Amino acid sequence: MPECSSCAAQVQPEWKFCIYCGEPTSADAARPAPLAAPRTNPIAILALILAAFGGAPALIFGHLAMRQIKENGERGMIMARIATALGYVWLVVWGILLYSLLTNVS
């Protein structure tokens, strides 16, 4: 009867793992590979780029990205939140500029 390489306990040949320590008993019973990291949401990246260049549409894309990230489990939630916040800031800035241009005309 074979022995476990980790704890030296007697194991059955059909066992894939040692019931005492949990180590694989053969080379073909390796532990499962870790899952790949999820990708970063491309809409969050686009929203951040728009926010960096002063685009108020960044808040729309930021909200879309946050919804997709919640549904799909992708990365980029902080990026989407920053883009959304900057989108609101740019919306206020553009609103103030437009208001000042319209009030100076008359």
UniProtKB/TrEMBL annotation:
Pfam families: DUF4190, Zn_Ribbon_1. The chain crosses the membrane at residues 43-66, 78-102. Residues 4-24 form the Zinc-ribbon domain. The keyword Membrane applies. The keyword Flavoprotein does not apply. Residues 44-97 form the DUF4190 domain. Keywords: Membrane, Transmembrane, Transmembrane helix. This is Zinc ribbon protein. It comes from Salinibacterium amurskyense.
